Amino acid sequence: MSEVADAAALRAGLASAGYLAGEALTTALLLAVRMGQPILLEGEPGVGKTEAARALASTMDTVLIRLQCYEGLSSAEALYEWNYPRQLLAIRLAESRGETLRDGDLFGADYLLPRPLLAAISHPGPRPAVLLIDEVDRADDEFEAFLLELLADAAVTIPELGTRRAKLPPVVVLTSNRTRDLHDALKRRCLYHWIAYPETERVAAIIRARVPDAAGWLAERVAVAVHRLRAQPLTKPPGVAEAINWANALRVLGVSAMDEGAMVSTLGAVLKYPEDIETVTGAGLAALADV
């Protein structure tokens, strides 16, 4: 599906891509596409923020360009770099010919290597790219401020070449795990949607869609167990991603019952801290998957 006709069509397209979105998230993504406005998706790790952007790109039949944010990420690393080996080759070739190169000869479009932000701005189409700025809360305040021009004007500035403005502005999806508060200036430029942990029935449906080889009963048992795990005082409560991983691990082992032995042997697929494993095993596993 290249064109997003309405919310129902978008929801069906997302489902075809393996992403079961609720009505509120579907509407928020539709508005981001139709209004040409960036959308900020926040939520706990593992609830499907990144996958929402992937599924949206698949639904729109366009490219996904992802920028993974991290502490210390600079604007240059996200925007572009110069092809230094090619520049050096040009310098040596000019010297062998007795020619003199100016800065403009070396810092032009032929020597520019786009990084994710510039690649999204320069995407030729025919449909806009989906630009995923993943975990923007991990980046520094300076990088967050740098993003404002891109989000407001679908443009970026390269000192040597000037401002590059998108002919086909990308659909921008930002995600945040809320490890820190984002600035109001960035939030003002974005639509906003909080992705909460889905209800048990939806988790089971997601598992059935993402792990189709798993037995039907297994999806339900895992969904219930994950819901009950989140009620315990864990450092990292499991999200949808962990539920899918757990179901897949149990499928690979060919378990015929979600009993204590099966859960003990696969807890590493759903819990990522030894303290959490100790908490869960100490409280007892028997009641986790009872339905």
Describe the model:
The structure is a single chain. The protein is an alpha/beta fold and about 290 residues long. The protein has two domains: about 150 residues, P-loop containing nucleotide triphosphate hydrolases (Rossmann fold, 3-Layer(aba) Sandwich), CATH 3.40.50.300; about 80 residues. The protein is about 50% helix and about 15% strand. The chain is built from 14 helices and nine strands. The strands form three sheets. The chain has a five-stranded parallel beta sheet, sandwiched between helices. It has a two-stranded antiparallel ribbon with strand order 3-4. A hairpin with a 3-residue loop joins β6 and β7. The radius of gyration is 23 Å and the shape is elongated.
Tag the structure with descriptive keywords:
two-stranded antiparallel sheet, 291 residues, alpha/beta, 14 helices, single chain, Rossmann fold, 5-stranded parallel sheet, 2 domains
Give the structure's gist in a few sentences:
The chain is of the alpha/beta class.
**What is the CATH topology assignment of the largest domain?**
Rossmann fold
Calculate Rg over CA atoms.
Answer: 23 Å
- The geometry reads as elongated
N-to-C SSE series? HHEHEHEHHEHEHEEEHEHHHHH
Specify the number of helices.
14
CATH classification, class level of the largest domain: Alpha Beta
| Count of the domains | 2
Q: Which structural class best describes the helix and strand composition? A: alpha/beta
Please, what is the CATH homologous superfamily of the largest domain?
Answer: P-loop containing nucleotide triphosphate hydrolases
Number of β-strand runs:
9
Largest sheet: 5 strands, parallel
* Residue-averaged pLDDT: 89
